[in-house]
Structure formats: structure tokens, C-alpha cells
Amino acid sequence: METSAKKRLLVAWVVVVAITVIYLWIDRSADDRGVLVSSVAVTVAAIGLALVKFRIILGEFMDVRHAPRALRRITDLLVVVIAMALLSAYFVGRAVA
Amino acid sequence: MSRSGERVIFWTLPAVAVIWIAAFLLFPGFVPPMSPKASAAEVAAFYRDHLSRVRYSMILFNWFCVALIPILMLLVERMRGMAHRTPVLRYCVIGAAGAAPIAFLTSTVFWLIAAFRPDRSPALTQMCNDLAWITFTCGVPFLIGLCVFVAVAIAYDDQEQPVFPRWVGRFNLVIALALVPACFAGLTLDGPFAWNGFVSFWVKNLAIALWIVVMAVVLRQAMDRDRVVAGAAA
Amino acid sequence: MSLGASLRTDPKRELWFAWYSTVAFYSLYSVVFFVLTRTQPPGRPWLTPEQTVAWFADRHWGLLVGFALIFVLGGFSATSISLITYSIRRMSVSRAYAYSYLILYAIAAIPGFLFICVAMTVGAMRPERDPALLHWLYDFGFLSFSGTMGVFLVGSLIWMAAILLDKNGVFPRWFGYLNLCNALTEVVIAPSWIFQRGVLAWNGVIAWWIDVAVFGMYTVVFIYLLRSLIQRDDLGTGPVPAPVITG
Amino acid sequence: MTETERVPGEGDMWFFVVFESLVFTSYFCVYLYDRAQHEHAFLKAQSALNLPLGIVETILLLTSSWAIARCVQEVRAARYRSAQRFVLATVGLGVAFFGCKLAEWVRLIGDGHTFTSSEFMQHFFFLTGMHAIHLLIGFVVLGVIRYQLADPQHRSHQTIETCSTYWHTVDLFWVLIFALLYIVR
Question: Chain C closest CA to D69's CA: distance in Å?
């Protein structure tokens, strides 16, 4: 059981690092020969992936996975609130601009 | 708890009083107080004509405006003998006693800046002068607080032999009230409420002087009594 | 029991005196700054000298009367400070924490609110003053008010450390962490010394609105917690002076 | 595998995690909104950032988070010496992150991208600076763990877990800051 916990932590680390490296690819493919171009898809993907990492850190590293339901709910709600807040700030900003 | 050395602090009071009165009389803008209606040119001329007296009187105040703090701490020590269950009112007095001289110190800084370059544009000198006078006249919130806290402390000191007589509490409230009109000195440039007016200048400053004298007398009595009690216990 | 009667006879009367004074002080403070003087939310940092003249003219009497009220009652800021100092004295930490808090906040009153009162009063009392000088007074008022947060920063950290080290359970531990959040938002105001416009200026979304939201919550929470602290305290009704807590 | 449910660390610490996350979220919202108003200027200023460096920083911090999570596992298994090594690793990775951060700031400032040079850089230095302050507090917190581990008398598993929760929170904020400053277009 203990080795499985250790292994699980390592897998979580590999996943978050892999997601970080995906950013490199997203970033390269988004730009026009080194010139940065505005892109809704990249923005939404960046925020989405960051929140996936956010959730993995909470669940695996911070051990919320084993926490009582209330804390699991609260942290899930936190992720949802952050997602909605960031996306609405971005889209409302674009609509106003 | 040791009371030793308290009389040394107490007897700094006459020295402080002499220095304060000397500085007060040395500052040419106090007797009579400068008028807020003076034009910028008149204010600039005042600083040019009385440069040395402004500087040396304000340096004196700058040195010694905090000199009352040790004596106020004697008052705080007497409050330990009051019929209170918590030190909250003592902390209130310490807080107010710390802030009050700093407000006064700020006004001396503005006066000294005004006098630093008498050849400055008269409008600037006038602004520094205004800042000094408003800080000096209106900057009494901590003194008002101090008086009210002492009054409440005395009112709550319900024991047979209270630390200070009852009337001292009421006296503190009267002094607090006497300081209130000065807070409104910004509203008018002449009349009794202006910063050079009878109420905002003379009533306020004489009230502070009276407070110091009366509190010194009752403080002395309370200290003597403490010593008698301590002697009897020993 | 009515307020008046309880302030005369309750064994906790000096605590209640300090608590009601705290509530009264913060209420007066809000009314003066938000309603009478309209100096909160703060004026725009990018006003020209001529616009500053209009700004002062627009709230001439409000500034003079409002800040005169602060000159009268500002000393009552000491009541919340002393109540908090007392709360720290109830904790299982050195008195050094309590005294640090007391001295930090007592002195913080001068830059914290006395300077803006003086600057704005001086500005309002002579509307005919050179606009450039009114501009300077305007800056002095707002920058001294917003930009002098170091004492509050360190003060919050002192209170936080005391709460987290305390074993007497005087405050819930989450409030200790809220002190850290409050201290961290005090940092955010510092850029108001640098920016004349934008989100970090003294009226900016980050430096003012978010900050005031956190500070407002913090203040309401600590006033409420001080109340429950007083209610919980058992000071007995025996004869005094036999102080429960000295120091 | 059934385990009893338990709050990691002190329950009250989670108030900090949630509250401080919301405060940071409000800063992010202001940034994203501002960004949408001046998209072109933001993109131009953003191109001064060095993405590979940002990725290295992110990986350093994620690894430090992993190390402190391992430390907690070792503490639970009562292997305190091994736990000590993981705390040291965490400190080392945190210092490396901070070193990269300083190098990045120095390079940007040297190139004329300062706190006041553009709105994007204003947000960049503000957010990374606020994060750095949290990180520095984190070193104090790691010091508490080390002190607790070294002294069997004062050793409290709960305190150690609470402190590790703080360190993870520093990581949480960075993950968002990184995506928002370096990747968002």
C-alpha cells in the first residue's frame, strides 16, 4: 500500500510536468513565426490545463483525495469558481473592448 | 512591583514646564497668535523678520514635546491600583499618550520647514504655515481621547478609597469638552473659533496647561499615598 | 440589560466600553470618509491642478466638517487597539507580542488618518490657494492615507503569530490565517506610490477595491470575534483591585 | 483500499488556501479584463518573456511540491531522517526557483521591461512579486517543518502537514500565474 502511494505521487508529478511541457507545444503552434497572436482557443486551453494541474496538486499532493467530503466539495467548488471567474473576466473583457 | 525612581520622573515636570513656557513665549507667532487671514506676503514677511525665534523655539518644542510621556506613564502606573478587572483602559491611555506628542511634533516639523528657506515663494511658506497651525490646533484627538479614557477609568474605580478623587474624572471630561471647538478651526478664518481665536487658541491651550497642573497635583497625592501603603506593608 | 446599565455595573464594563467605542469609531470613520468628505473611494490620482481646485470646491464643507469630527473623535481608535492588545495578553505568548501591537497601532494613527485630515483641511480652508499647491495637498492626503501600510502589515503579522502560537484558544486559528491574508493585501497598496493611473494606482481596482474588500471583511470579523471573546471571558465578580490580568 | 477520511493538516489552514486563492483569482480577473482591453499592447510586451525559463521554473516548483508531499509520506511512516532529506530537497528546489525568478527579473529590467514600462509588465511584476512574497514566507514555513522534524519533543504531524499545505499553495498559485502570464494569448 505504501509503495503504491509513492508510485501514485510519482505518476501525479509526471502528469503535471507533462502538462507543463504541452504548453511549449501550444505556445509554438499558436504564434505566427515568433509574433504573438491573440487566440481564444489558446487562452481557454491554458486556463483549462492550469486548472487541471491545480486540481491534481490539490487531490494528490495535498491529499484532498483522502479528505472528508466537505473539504473535497469545497476544493472542487473552488476550482469551478476560479474557472468561471477567469473565463468570464476574459470574455466580458473582450465583449467590452 | 518596584516604584523606585518614580519621583525622579515626577520632578522632571517643572523642568519640562519651564522649557515649554519658554518655547511658547519665544515663538513670535503665539503671543499674539498669528492670524489665518494674513496674506501669503505677510506670512512670508513674518518668517523673514523672526527667523531665529521661530527656529529656536520650534527646535525646543521638537526636542521636548515628548517629554510628558514619562509623566503620563506615572499616571498609567497609578491606574494599576484602580478597581478594574482588565488592563484595557490602561492600554487606551498608553496608546493616546504615545500618539498625542507625535501629532504635536508633526506641527513643529511644518513650522521648521516654513522657516528653513525664508526666500521660498510666499505661497509655499503660507501652505507650510497652514499645515503647522492646523496640525497644532486641530491635532488634539489623542488628547481628547486621553481625557475621556482617564475619566472613564476614574468613573469605574468604585472602591472606598479611589486612586483619584471623583471630581478628577469630571474635570477630565470638562477639559475634553474644552478641546473640542479647536477641532473645527479649519471652518473659519476669523472670530473666536479661528486658529488664533479665543476658543481655539486660548481656551484650548490653557485647558491643556490646566490639565497638566491639576493632574500633576493629584498624581503627587496618589503617589504619596502609594508610598505610605508600601511603607505600612513593609 | 440596557447598554447604559451594563456599562455601569457589568464586571466586564471596561471591555464593553472599549468594544462599543470600537464599533462607534469604525462607524463614524466610514460615515466621514464615504459620506461626509467623499474621500473614499479616493479621488482620481490623475487630476490636473485645476481639476483639484474643483474637487476641493465640490466638497468644501464636507471636508472641513467631516475631518473636524475625526479631529474630535480620532483618539477613540485607541479602544480597538487596546482591546486587541488585551486579547493578545490572554494568549499563551510573551507580553512582547501585546506591547508590540499596542505601540505599532498607536503610532500608526498619525500617518494612518491624521495626515489626510490635516492635508485636506488645509486644502479646503483656502480655495483661492495656488492650484499647484492644492494639487500637492491632494497628493499628500491620499498618499499618506493609502501608502503608509507598513505598521499595519507588521501589526497583522504580530497578531497572526500570537494567534497561531496561542494554546488558550483565544481566537479561532482560521482568523490567524486571515491576518496573514490581510497583511499580504497591505503589500499591494505600495505601488500607489508609483502609479498615477491603472489598477495599482491609489484608487485602482487592485490597490483600492480588492484591498478594501479584504480589509472590510477582516475588520467586521475581528470586531465580531472581540465581542465573543468578551462574552466568553469569565472575570468573576469579586472585589477589585485584584486584577485577573496584570501587565 | 479503504482508508479513513482525514483532513490533511489543520482544518483552519484550508480557510487560508481558499481565501487566498480567491484573492489571487480577483487579481487574475483584473489582469485578464485589462488584457482584453489592450490585447495588442499586451501581446507585444508579452513576447519579451522567455517561455522555456518559465517552464523550467514551473517544473522546479512542481518537483518541490512533490518532494514535500514525499516528506509528509515519510513522516507518516515515521522515517524522519528520510523526511529531513525531502525537506532539504524542497528548500533547494524553492531556492532554485527563486534564483531563476531573480535572473528573469534582472534580464527583463536590463532589457528595459520594468514595473512601469507597460501595462503587461505592471501585471507581470505585480503577480510574480506577490507570488515571490508567498514563496519567501514558504521558506519560513519549511524552516518550521525542519525544526519540528529535528526535535522529537515538539514533533507534530499535524503541524508538518499544515506547513506542507502552505508550500503546495505557493505551487498552486504559480501554476495559474504561469499559464496566465506566459501562455494566454
Answer: 22
